[in-house]
Specification:
By secondary structure, this protein is mainly alpha-helical. The chain folds into two domains: 31 residues, no CATH class; 168 residues. It is built from seven helices and no strands. The chain is flat and about 60 Å long. 26% of the residues are buried.
Length: 205
Amino acid sequence: MAAILTKLGNTVIAGIVALVVMFVIVGATAGGGAFDHSWWNFLFRYLHVLSGVMWIGLLYYFNFVQIPNMPNIPDEQKPAIGKVIAPAALFWFRWAAMSTIVTGLIVALMNGYLVDAIAIGFTDGGNSTPIGIGMWLGAIMWFNVWFVIWPNQKRALGIVEADADSKAKSARTAMLFSRTNTLLSVPMLFCMVAQQNAGFVGFGG
């Protein structure tokens, strides 16, 4: 067990093996055709949730742990955060955001509510208002990650050349848009859960 848990790669591989075992068990007991539409729909929904956990988890790490505690870290120790921890966290952060948005669009397409959700329910496709609002909030958050937070973090962390004033301004911009995403995540997650619980506060789906 120690060999599995002491190396992250081994832990991830073990998790994937456990996932495959769960797929076999669930597939054998749930009935239905293997690799049919329902199977792929379930797989992409699972990947969507998994990606979202990584994305929002890192968003909350930045806003509830790293940013508030940076002033308490001695100056001589701060480079360890800026040069090692933050770049690694930002890598997983931005690609988890990409995976979340892509798998979410695939799930919406497979379930036939993509157009209605984008139109926030104002079509004849059914009541997709909550998921539509959630998808738009998620899209705004994804845009902020890739086109505002990441470019500014590259300057703030010295990944690309920038003078001291530019670094300071970029760090503040990245922080403000990260806080914006934290704000948006609260109603976004509510909309996602509301859509899955038909009839809750008047929402259908």
